[in-house]
Automatic annotation (TrEMBL):
<dbReference type="Pfam" id="PF01012">
    <property type="entry name" value="ETF"/>
</dbReference>
<feature type="domain" description="Electron transfer flavoprotein alpha/beta-subunit N-terminal">
    <location>
        <begin position="21"/>
        <end position="202"/>
    </location>
</feature>
<keyword id="KW-0813">Transport</keyword>
<protein>
    <submittedName>
        <fullName>Electron transfer flavoprotein beta subunit</fullName>
    </submittedName>
</protein>
<dbReference type="InterPro" id="IPR014730">
    <property type="entry name" value="ETF_a/b_N"/>
</dbReference>
<comment type="similarity">
    <text>Belongs to the ETF beta-subunit/FixA family.</text>
</comment>
<dbReference type="InterPro" id="IPR014729">
    <property type="entry name" value="Rossmann-like_a/b/a_fold"/>
</dbReference>
<dbReference type="InterPro" id="IPR012255">
    <property type="entry name" value="ETF_b"/>
</dbReference>
<dbReference type="GO" id="GO:0009055">
    <property type="term" value="F:electron transfer activity"/>
</dbReference>
<keyword id="KW-0249">Electron transport</keyword>
Amino acid sequence: MPLDAQSSNAAGLNVAVLVSIGRHPLTARTRRADQDARAVEMALSLKGASVNLMHAGQHDSDHEEAIRGYLGMGIEEVRLLEQMPEADVVPVLTDALRASSPQLVLTGTRAETGEGSGILPYLLAEALGWPVINGLAAVEKVEKGVATVLQALPRGKRRRLRVRLPAIATVDTSAPSARQSAFGPARRGEFDVQPHASEADAALTQWQIQPARKRPKRLKVIKSSSARDRFKAAAAKSDGGGGQLLNDVTPEQGAEAIFKLLREEGVLR
């Protein structure tokens, strides 16, 4: 039986958690990001570990209030790497992680604001030369620079992995839920604001960002005289019919098939 995350022993482990600004799905108000909060919860569950929070972004009242949601989980201080709006945070986070030398870096799978592409952990891992674990569900133990972890797989399955540290791991909704943020600790927590030079994200400046709108779903016209047949047709699951299954192909052939599909769907031109 695997050890529960609450009993994980990681004495002396230096853990850095990258946190971002979240957005409530209904009210659109800023808040702590759910997946990042789960990453903080997982870091706090590692007994004997030193947990440090890091955020790269603006320092204003709205952002500060959202970050205090992490402080309310029992964190005394957040290191804030001050950046200009629409800045590329990869360089400043890479330098900060290289200087602080954590053994394990935890973060959410993707941000709730901004690009939300989920590619940041992979860019950091590429720059630092560290391995990446996606879908981290639990850390079982850490011994002699090697972490034994559980990775979440589809349909509730888990896979045990052994990864040599330092490493970066992403946390999603398969990880334990975060504790509530307490008002007192959130107010008492401090910010270590460190101004850094900002590098503009050239690609982001060329994008046009607007709120997504739900499009009406086209209803299938069912021609049938009986109510039973109409209900059966409406509840039936339609087959895609346009998919293609690739087996025993080279990476180049798989990439070519994906590229062709994106061209046909109009994603790439």
